[in-house]
Design goal:
Rna Polymerase Sigma Factor, Chain: A, Arc Repressor Mutant, subunit A, 2 domains, elongated
């Protein structure tokens, strides 16, 4: 399935999906059966995967984007990416978990493509350890700081960068981040601490 392929994504509320197996074990087995068929080129099987999981993926996407149109774009990109990546899916995690992880990454990528991956000024100053002057010189300093922050974010590990972006730039709470990523609140706090620590080290020149 190529990037130009479009799923028929409708505005929320969406119609209820068809009846599916009710037990978790049955759900997982059914998903795995669909994946096996889709890997063999069965388009109907992948369309059923989409119908079964689009609601959950949209919920994750909307929670990160806070905008319905952006969230729908993320859903679209998520299933295109999932279709291309099906050969690598081995079933170690639930299919829904795998899809939501892809959606999380796609939402972050969307923000980066639109160059909105920017910390709030207070967060930038906090990381740099100093206030930025006002006026033309201050605006130039702020621009340099934002560019340096972009470069520094690229140097972080994916798990630390993701938590930092969700907390500092998307405004999500520890609880929401933990739920979205499937980790504990303590892990969220730990990753955020190390992300900030590493960013401060990489932005040390701005504190001079």
């Amino acid at each position: 399935m190529e990037r130009g392929t479009r799923f028929r994504i409708r505005s929320i509320p969406m119609p209820s999906p068809p009846l599916q197996p009710s037990k978790p074990d049955d759900e997982r087995a059914y998903d795995l059966a669909l994946v096996r068929r889709a890997k063999k080129g069965d388009r109907a099987a992948f369309e059923e995967i989409y119908e079964r999981h689009r609601h959950k993926v949209f919920k994750v996407a909307y929670g990160m984007c806070r905008n319905q149109e952006d969230a729908l774009d993320v859903v679209q990109d998520t299933f295109v990416k999932a279709h291309r990546s099906l050969p690598s899916f081995e079933g170690r995690a639930a299919l829904s978990t795998w899809l939501c992880q892809i959606a999380t990454h796609q939402a972050i990528d969307l923000a980066r493509r639109r160059r909105v991956r920017r910390a709030e000024p207070i967060e930038e100053r906090r990381l740099a350890g100093k206030d930025v002057a006002e006026g033309p010189r201050g605006r130039a300093q702020a621009s340099e700081l934002r560019e340096a922050l972009d470069r520094a974010l690229d140097e972080l590990s994916e798990k630390h960068r993701t938590v930092f972006v969700l907390y500092s730039q998307k405004g999500m709470s520890y609880k929401d981040i933990a739920k979205t990523l499937g980790i504990s609140i303590g892990t969220v706090m730990s990753r955020l601490f190390y992300a900030r620590k590493n960013l401060q080290r990489m932005l040390a020149e701005f504190a001079q």
